[in-house]
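ARCHIVE CARD
Drawer: 12
Card no.: 0347
Subject: one protein chain, sequence and derived structure
Cross-reference: see card 0346
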Amino acid sequence: MNPIEIEGVIPAMVTPFDEAQRLDEDAMRTHVDFLIGKGVHGVFCLGSMGEFAYLSEYERNRTVKIVVDQAAGRVPVVVGTSHFSTRVSVKLSKEAERLGADAVMSILIPYFPLTEEMIYNYYKKLSEEVSLPIFIYNFPMVTNFDISPETIAKLAEFDNIVGLKDTVIDANHTKRVLELVPEDFVVMPGSELTLQATLEAGAKGAIFGTSNVDPAPLCEVYRLYRAGNLDKARAKIHEATKLIEIMTIASLECGPSIIKNAMKLCGREINTTVRSPLPQLTSEQAQKLRSTLEKLGLLHAT
């Protein structure tokens, strides 16, 4: 079950806030237009870079409404419906469908340690209760649990579980998934480190937080791979993935702040506020980010 094509370059959107940490709805709309104007094939809101875990249910639903409205059918909208609770994930997924989302993507957030059985039952319940296409979200750096390729393959047997975002640093995990799942199951890497290996193994796109800054180089690489121009695609891989360097300037929890600050330094009008308890960049980290963007040739002239 994949009634619309959800593949290609699908940025994991940031959620803009004002200085008081309230949703900045105008900035959100501007950002959707920016991404679509750069040629993306879809947008993914309320993922990790979207700070979903720190938003109220009202704010999450309001974000969905704004993004769906602004996308206006130009590209598919994938909505993150992750939660500690299976029941709440189901509720959020049904609300996303009511608000016009094209698909949902969900990760079981850990409090108690996760098991393979818990993961399987979580997605099984989503599949039984939600009629939208569902994407599995594997992010072991956050959950401390790597969903096995065998469990993913079992879940792919459900008609409405249509794909996977695999945010891992070992391409072999994603490649093993691709060996086990049906050809129409949409596997997309969530890390720039695995992009080339997974695209050449059959992945159908990519979902990166760094694409908030400028997704155009990645869109070009994807186009070249789809056209079978492997040599040209490989020659442009570095350009499409070089922003991964900015993610090394601070630890994982600084990711949303890094991306928002990078967007601003690259000329975007966005407030760099992140939602507490996530940290803002220190002055030292901000200077390192500026230096890295300058080295990469991306710093906006001011």
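Annotation on reverse: The chain has one domain: 8-240. Residues 8-240 form a domain with the TIM Barrel fold (CATH 3.20.20.70).
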